[in-house]
Amino acid sequence: xxxxxxxxxxxxxxxxxxxxxxxxxxxxxxxxxxxxxxxxxxxxxxxxxxxxxxxxxxxxxxxxxxxxxxxxxxxxxxxxxxxxxxxxxxxxxxxxxxxxxxxxxxxxxxxxxxxxxxxxxxxxxxxxxxxxxxxxxxxxxxxxxxxxxxxxxxxxxxxxxxxxxxxxxxxxxxxxxxxxxxxxxxxxxxxxxxxxxxxxxxxxxxxxxxxxxxxxxxxxxxxxxxxxxxxxxxxxxxxxxxxxxxxxxxxxxxxxxxxxxxxxxxxxxxxxxxxxxxxxxxxxxxxxxxxxxxxxxx
Length: 298
Prior knowledge:
Layout: H1 29-62, H2 65-88, H3 94-119, H4 126-152, E1 158-160, H5 164-178, H6 184-187, H7 194-205, H8 207-218, E2 223-225, H9 238-253, H10 255-297
Antiparallel strand pairs: 1-2
């Protein structure tokens, strides 16, 4: 008998399973949350500005003008900080700009007008109401023009017209200085400048005219220096550093009076630089006209 041949059959290979690699999109939750926090941070300061403006209006109605003025000083600080934080964190937005403008209208347009009406203008009846309304209207127009220029990309290195917080600053610092006159314990101490305190009562009498002038300065085309891009952390000259140190010391020693001087000088500075330029331009035009006439005759 022949031996049988046995063939070993290999077991069938199981088909290889293809593994599909699914790419899961990376979700940066932490970055998104941080981004939302950055947008919220400047908005909180803007809302603080608005809240302090409302508190100032309530204090003015109650007749507590010192508290009303200090509330607006806090609103000024919030207005400076929200812009700085938004630029540092690169979180500027159209929503933030509109919210900032509405807050500025309440804190630096309506609140100072109500404060001055309750303190000075209420004795002038309808004229006082008209001056207060003019200040609010010009503040709104100034803020609206600023928004239009910023959206159209026509922003300049300087402000066009007196900024609304600066015009309110003149009124706020005046109220703080004026209220010191009635306090005997502070009228002659280190917190007041005697020469300025003698001028304050006269300034009180012309305050309606000052408000009208401030209103027209806000809607004017007079250029005012902008400090937004100024970095105090990088002082280029020793003289500028010395001026900043002296200014800080003066504000600490004479807080109300120095704040009044700073805002008043800033409001007048636009006129001091703008009027000579207009005069020079008119003189140049007058000189150019005879030359053109001679050329035409020839």
